[in-house]
């Protein structure tokens, strides 16, 4: 039971990490050009957080680097089903995070959540819902 549960949790982590990688690609392949938005500060080291819908729309939240909530990709705002964050240093995206709940700057680390054996089993039985955060850095 534990081995199956551990495999399930590892699969969920791999899935959320692939979402973070997809966000990274969206911000680095020209799909989303942050330089086109004067309300977003990309100088120095900055974190930008926001929400998305199946990567068909991206919206950035007001924060230290963003003057006001702003739609940065897509025709119109849709109901969010994912949340993202990017770390930018001098205009270059360095790291990305993904989650299924709104993120806070304090949560943005490279470290993945680790579950003890009981939490792993309870997660696979859908009794316990850990909050996984995906991470990607190229």
Q: What's the end-to-end separation, in Å?
A: 35 Å
What value does the average pLDDT take? Answer: 84
Content of β-strand: 25-35%
Order of strands in the sheet with most strands: 3-2-1-4-5-6
Morphology = elongated
Count of β-strands = 6
How much is the radius of gyration in Å? 16 Å
Q: Topology as H/E string? A: HEEEEEHE
Number of helices: 2
Which residue ranges are poorly predicted, with pLDDT under 50 across at least 5 consecutive positions?
none
- Outline the biggest β-sheet: 6 strands, antiparallel
| Main structural class | alpha+beta
Helix content: 25-40%
Give an overview in words.
By secondary structure, the protein is an alpha+beta fold. The chain is built from two helices and six strands. Strands 3-2-1-4-5-6 form a six-stranded antiparallel sheet. Helix 1 (2-28) crosses helix 2 (117-124). It is elongated, with a radius of gyration of 16 Å.
Key terms for this structure?
elongated; 6 strands; six-stranded antiparallel beta sheet; alpha+beta; single chain; 138 residues
How would you briefly describe this protein structure?
The chain is α+β, with helices and mostly antiparallel strands and 138 residues long. It has helices at residues 2-28, 117-124; strands at 45-53, 57-60, 70-73, 82-89, 92-99, 133-137.
């Amino acid at each position: 039971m534990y081995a199956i549960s551990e495999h399930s949790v590892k699969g969920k982590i791999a899935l959320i990490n692939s979402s973070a990688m997809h966000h990274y690609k969206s911000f680095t392949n020209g799909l989303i050009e942050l330089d086109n938005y004067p309300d977003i500060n990309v100088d120095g080291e900055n974190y930008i957080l926001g929400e998305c819908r199946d990567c068909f729309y991206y919206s950035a939240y007001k924060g230290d680097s963003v003057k006001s909530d702003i739609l940065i990709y897509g025709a119109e705002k849709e109901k969010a089903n994912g949340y993202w964050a990017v770390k930018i240093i001098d205009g270059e995206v360095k790291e990305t995070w993904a989650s299924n709940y709104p993120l806070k700057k304090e949560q943005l680390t490279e470290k993945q959540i680790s579950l003890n054996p009981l939490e792993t089993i309870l997660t696979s039985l859908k009794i316990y819902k850990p909050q996984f955060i995906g991470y990607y850095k190229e």
